[in-house]
């Protein structure tokens, strides 16, 4: 029985490889997954004007929703929907390949589902494939269905080094826990992680990641406007190390630093090297976005 399963998986793999070779899509890339014990899996994601948002056999897509999950690591694409239409339920169809209609819109999202028995789960991609292509410059992968920036609720990664919020060529999911992978569903005794991916033009991505948060008023930046120094005051009992990011009006990251602070005290940032203009200041604590506020730099 085991040999039959291995043979079937091998035949399925060959069919998919043949389909990729025969039917060329406008853009595609492999998304790599590896767990803590070295088990690996790969998805092929892409877009083409002739593709649909369901199963397209001509692009090598095969519905495997009825196949049981592998024992250790198994990753699949799910349904394709638009922003706001998702629920934490099992997809109606699953595949190892998903070529979607070309929209270049961050609201056009591919569901990714994964069973992982050994965390952390490391997700990697080739960043060079996301350069010099407007349709993919704002592409992002997120573990929360609302694409909250700077891991407000989940983990977020931007895939293109041309995008101002790009940080690395990988996304690491440490475990199934609130604030890391809250989007899950159960399939028998297995807890399945849900992720979302979008091919996105930067024009469709929410500008600078401004997020309204309940405790945003507990933080203030001053003086505003100012010249050589900026102070951030946290009117709360929080303490520890914070990450401060500053973006210019073009969305480019110009300052990124870690600061230790004590409750109800202000931390200072030297801004003398920055050009005059409008900036966005973000404050992150323990992988949570605490605030995003505007600040005006005046002439020296």
Structure description:
A hairpin with a 2-residue loop joins β10 (184-187) and β11 (190-198). Strands 3, 5, 7, 8, 10 and 11 form a six-stranded antiparallel sheet that branches. Strands 4-2-1-6-9 form a five-stranded mixed sheet, with no helix packed on it. The protein has two domains: 2-205, no CATH class; 208-297, Immunoglobulin-like (Sandwich). The protein is globular. The chain is mainly β. 7% of the residues lie in helices and 39% in strands.
The biggest beta sheet, please?
Answer: 6 strands, antiparallel
* DSSP summary: helix tally: 1
Oligomer designation: single chain
What is the CA–CA distance across the termini? 75 Å
Show unreliable segments. Answer: 18-22, 146-153, 207-215
Strand-residue fraction?
35-45%
Q: Helix coverage percent of residues?
A: under 10%
Q: What are the key terms here?
A:
1 helix, 6-stranded antiparallel beta sheet, 7% helix, Immunoglobulin-like, 18 strands, mainly beta, 5-stranded mixed beta sheet, 300 residues, 2 domains
Task: Summarize the structure in short.
By secondary structure, the protein is mainly beta.
